[in-house]
Amino acid sequence: QVQLSESGGGSVQPGGSLRLSCAASVSHYRYYCLGWFRQAPGKEREGVAAIGSDGSTGYSDSVKGRFTISQDNTKNVLYLQMNSLKPEDTAMYYCVAVGPRMTAIQALSVMPTAIPIGNWGQGTRVTVSS
């Protein structure tokens, strides 16, 4: 059973910051790997950050050093702190329950099309523009 609900998207100028939140209801939450994926206009979905069931974190090269993923296990909330935002970060961002017992690196290697549609939140839009 997976229910994911994102919030925190919006419009921001280049160089600005946003924090996305995801309220997660996932059976056996502590054993699940959660991540943030995004889909920019005209592009395929891609993984940008994940937190493994072992607590490891991983990032795509495009966001490394600017984005930070974290979670509050007591509240089952996943976060994505996004700093130094660029226009190319404009996308719909999705909270995703990637799979059980995975490291973050493994999660970011999973093809988005291989993740069941029921494991995706509805998405929150981020627009970076001057």
Layout of SSEs?
Layout lengths: L1 E6 L2 E3 L5 E9 L5 E8 L6 E6 L5 E3 L7 E6 L4 E6 L8 E10 L3 H5 L15 E5 L2
Parallel strand pairs: 2-10
Antiparallel strand pairs: 1-3, 3-8, 4-5, 4-9, 5-6, 7-8, 9-10
Please tell me the overall pLDDT.
Answer: 94
How many helical stretches? 1
How far apart are the termini? 40 Å
In the sheet with the most strands, the strands line up as 2-10-9-4-5-6
Instruction: Quote the beta fraction.
Output: over 45%
Provide the structure class. Answer: mainly beta
Q: What attributes characterize this protein structure?
A:
single chain, 130 residues, mainly beta, 6-stranded mixed β-sheet, 4-stranded antiparallel β-sheet, 1 helix, 4% helix, globular
Written account of the structure:
With 130 residues, this protein is mainly beta. The protein is 4% helix and 48% strand. It has 1 helix and 10 strands; from the N terminus they run βββββββββαβ. Strand 4 and strand 5 form a beta hairpin. The model has no long low-confidence stretch (mean pLDDT 94).
